[in-house]
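Tokens as discussed.
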């Protein structure tokens, strides 16, 4: 019974809605140490608004890390703006890892230079690193959709051409 005591207490807790959207599909969320909430979703869903947002005090999405990264303008290179964000992951070092599948549509083609990991320092709100996936790593139809960490490696799943990409965090090699 002792092992289940915590479950009974947890069952008494109520979920709290902190934000809702009616014009976007948020399929990724992360929270920082100051309870800042970050949300993201892919543009192929017809989403209006920023690809990646930090919710403001009124729980409205604000472009994160800035408007340029969330731009749809062709004048901003695809390596410097979000195309189709599919995952967020906050690490133990105060960084937000943003997974951009870089595809034109779900099941679509990878746009050269668009599939990437963007690392943002949560304290400064600045992108500190961009790791671009090359054509020798991604295949036609690839769809990078999630990231997990273990030790000195990151593991990313490819849901389009089923597989796992292993990233050596020290060297950047895949």
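Sequence:
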């Amino acid at each position: 019974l002792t092992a289940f005591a915590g479950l009974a207490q947890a069952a008494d807790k109520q979920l709290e809605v902190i934000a809702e959207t009616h014009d976007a599909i948020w399929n990724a969320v992360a929270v920082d140490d100051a309870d800042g909430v970050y949300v993201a979703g892919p543009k192929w869903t017809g989403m209006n608004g920023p690809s990646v947002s930090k919710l403001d005090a009124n729980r409205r999405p604000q472009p994160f890390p800035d408007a340029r990264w969330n731009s749809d303008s062709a004048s901003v290179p695809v390596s410097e703006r979000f195309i189709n964000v599919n995952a967020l992951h906050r690490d133990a070092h105060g960084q937000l890892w943003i997974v951009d599948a870089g595809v034109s549509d779900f099941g679509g083609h990878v746009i050269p230079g668009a599939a990437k990991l963007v690392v943002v320092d949560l304290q400064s709100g600045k992108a500190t690193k961009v790791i671009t996936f090359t054509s020798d790593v991604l295949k036609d139809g690839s769809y990078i959709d999630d990231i997990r960490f273990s030790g000195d490696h990151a593991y990313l799943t490819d849901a389009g051409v089923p597989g796992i990409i292993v990233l050596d965090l020290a060297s950047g090699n895949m």
